[in-house]
Write a structure and sequence with these properties.
heterodimer, A: alpha/beta, Elongation Factor Tu (Ef-tu), domain 3, Rossmann fold, seven-stranded mixed beta sheet, six-stranded antiparallel beta sheet, 7 helices, about 20% helix, about 30% strand, B: alpha/beta, 2 domains, four-stranded antiparallel beta sheet, 11 strands, about 20% strand
Chain lengths: ~280, ~350
């Protein structure tokens, strides 16, 4: 009969839940089985709740820390809503990893500029921590991060750590609510404005930096426009495309754009590739 | 390639042979519609191109990937393998265009990740193609899908009082061996002459004057011709019938269906359509293809251009189903006509 069913999810156990923001939780997961779970930063999994369905979620942990898998999940629908109701020790169903991740090997030696918005930091956190765990292999690391408010900043522990490191540079900003934020986290940052306002401050150099962007659709659009204006070559801008990815293996059709399937050919694309696709952004 | 001859008088005997290989299915008229149905020995099996109904409303994909089936069973904690009852079938009566369609499904579903549900059914399906008489909607001669080289197990070419039978696979060969006394290996010059003559006559049946030349380029060059796509978008009902009847449409959706007791259920997969409004909607409600014009453009771009980037050929096989099915006459003929700056339309009868 069916020898291998790629649609069949496996059981994983929730070992830790971190409340990131009012609507984002990070789930630290352990697999009950023995099969090693090998992935790349930027890849995603399909997570199921029996009876509710399946949702594609990007991996936020790094393969350089192989003891666990972390998924940061924003409550937006049925499956993610139910996931938010789960507790430690509960079981989730996962299949994957899927898709083409960030080209972490090709990035070796490059000076990296990360631009993230909101929950879009989740897949980039995977790359950033990957790079930091192999720090000597990469050049300069700058992280620009923006969220709607202080409460909406995810991974505050990582942000504190990144902010304190001397071998990288973190600039964070929020769209609004600076006073409240400054009161709480005085001396760390306190910028106000959308993430693209950080471009002028971070001394980015289109000749030197390779840029990785992830965030809400609208933020990616503005960030790309700003980078192109600053003279970045399309081949040196890497971003992710969001589409409905039902099956994850290029069969169900929903994520199709021209000859590409975002779930298989992406979700990570260079701007050069995207510019050859109609209506990708 | 081996070729045999079989007399039409031996159809009944041949049916007995085919039954040894599985359920026998054939397109027959049911309630005015041509549909693939299982036939039994009391029914009449014929391979005759004038007697098999010409264009089953749903192509072979209906049998290779049913419109709805269980992919997994689940309980509160995990998903388990669902029982797949896949019968062995001998499907008679597919034409060259539809077998080309199956070849495209084969590529799509069995490259990279293999879809186990498709592969299982495909492996257990013997395809016996038959020659056909094109009607006014057919245009496989324009899409280069009127001649079929592979994808069938046997192919029956109707030459009047006998058939010329092409063997396309070892399974097809098994059938020939099983019905050894029915098949004649002696292909005379007279038979070859009959076949060449049949080809000539057959080609003259085509009346569909769709002009496919340069369509792939036009899809790209006229991509931003909003007027063209809005003309069709204004008429479109988003009913999805074009995608259901298309031999090369493969999109599906998946839902978890709970049993009444709420503790277990089935993960079900069913045909989806890119014409449906929520097809490209993501979490949070953003819809990448809100308008009917955008969705129509996606479909035609995929069929006539994008598929080439993936597999080297367009995925329209010229079967004419979109022409006979669309209730508002949005079809490949009319789209190609507008792409070429013309307004002539082919309207279904």
């Amino acid at each position: 009969m069916l020898t291998h069913n790629p649609y069949k999810p496996q059981n994983w156990e929730i070992k830790k839940i971190i409340d990131e923001t009012p609507d984002v939780k990070t789930f630290r997961l352990f697999q009950r089985g023995v099969r090693p779970f090998i992935y790349k930063p930027g890849q995603f999994v399909e997570i199921s709740i029996p009876g509710a369905g399946e949702a594609p979620i990007s991996i936020t942990s790094t393969p350089t820390r192989p003891d666990y898998l972390e998924l940061s999940i924003k409550k937006t629908g049925k499956v993610t809503g139910l996931l938010h109701g789960l507790s430690m020790g509960d079981v989730v169903n996962i299949r994957g990893p899927y898709g083409r991740g960030f080209p972490v090997d090709e990035l070796k030696g490059e000076d990296l500029l990360f631009v993230a918005g909101g929950i879009g930091l989740a897949p980039l956190r995977s790359v950033i921590n990957y790079v930091l765990d192999r720090r000597a292999s990469y050049g300069e690391v700058i992280v620009l991060y923006g969220a709607r408010s202080y409460d909406d900043l995810v991974f505050k522990d990582d942000l504190a750590l990144w902010g304190s490191r001397r071998d990288m540079n973190l600039l964070a900003t929020v769209d609004a609510g600076c006073d409240e934020w400054s009161d709480r986290e005085e001396g760390w940052c306190g910028r106000v404005g959308v993430v693209t306002t950080l471009f002028s401050e971070c001394k980015m150099d289109s000749a030197r930096h390779l840029c990785l962007i992830c965030g809400p659709h609208i933020m990616i659009k503005f960030a790309l426009a700003g980078l192109m204006e600053a003279g970045f070559k399309p081949s040196r801008i890497i971003t992710t495309l969001e589409r409905m990815m039902k099956c994850g293996i290029g069969k169900c059709g929903h994520c199709n754009i021209g000859p590409k399937y975002v779930c298989q050919d992406g979700p990570v694309f260079t701007m050069e590739e995207i510019s050859r696709l109609y209506e990708a952004l | 390639m081996r070729v045999y001859k079989i007399s039409k008088q031996d159809e009944k005997k041949l049916f007995k042979v085919l039954e040894k290989f599985g359920e026998v299915w054939l397109p027959v008229k049911k309630g005015g519609k041509c549909t693939f149905s299982r036939i039994y020995s009391e029914d009449r099996l014929t391979f005759s191109q004038t007697e098999i109904c010409n264009r089953p409303l749903l192509p072979l994909k209906k049998l290779l990937l049913p419109p709805e089936f269980n992919t997994l069973d689940f309980n509160a904690e995990r998903y388990n393998r669902a029982e797949q009852n896949v019968p062995s079938r001998v499907v008679v009566g597919s034409h060259a265009c539809d077998i080309h369609g199956v070849n495209i499904l084969d590529k799509f579903y069995t490259t990279d990740f293999i879809d186990p549900f498709y592969r299982e059914r495909r492996k257990k399906t013997i395809i016996i193609g038959t020659s056909c008489e094109p009607d006014e909607y057919c245009f496989c001669n324009k899409t280069n899908t009127n001649i079929i080289e592979e994808g069938y197990d046997l192919f029956f070419n109707d030459l009047g009082h006998y058939y010329l039978v092409w063997v396309g696979s070892s399974k097809g060969d098994d059938i020939i061996r099983e019905g050894d006394d029915l098949f004649d290996e002696n292909i005379t010059d007279k038979i070859i002459g009959d076949f060449i003559n049949w080809r000539k006559v057959n080609e003259n049946f085509f009346t569909n004057d769709i002009d496919f030349y340069g369509v792939t380029d036009l899809m790209e060059l006229k991509y931003n011709d909003n007027e063209l796509w809005e003309y069709f978008g204004d008429k479109c009902l988003s009913c999805g019938q074009c995608t259901m009847v298309c031999p090369t449409c493969t999109c599906f959706n998946v839902i978890d269906d709970l049993e009444v007791n709420k503790n277990e259920g089935h993960r079900r997969r069913y045909w989806d359509s890119c014409m449906f409004k929520d097809y490209s909607m993501v979490a949070g409600g953003h819809n990448f293809r809100k308008t009917r014009a955008e969705r129509l453009k996606l479909w035609y771009t995929h069929k006539l251009k994008a598929f080439i980037g993936q597999f080297g050929n367009p995925s329209c096989v010229g079967c004419g189903r979109c022409i006979v099915t669309c209730p508002v006459d949005i079809n490949v003929y009319n789209v190609v006509s507008r792409l070429k700056g013309q307004e002539k339309e082919l309207i279904r009868k």
